[in-house]
Amino acid sequence: MGTGDYWCFPVTAGRCHEQVWCHFHDQNDREQVASDFLEFVAQYGLKSSTDRTLERRAR
Fold this sequence. Notes:
Layout: E1 6-8, E2 11-12, E3 15-16, E4 20-24, E5 29-34, H1 37-45, H2 49-58
Antiparallel strand pairs: 1-4, 2-3, 4-5
């Protein structure tokens, strides 16, 4: 993400979940950002970092 935050997949009992989460390093907080990897790529992977920054500011 360029900010120290990172994307992750939760793992339970050695099994990776489909959901994609974001871990915010400065708040030690997590947020689910997509229900599966395809949704994640469509929502985040196909946009520029400028587009994502503008979207975060609009919230």
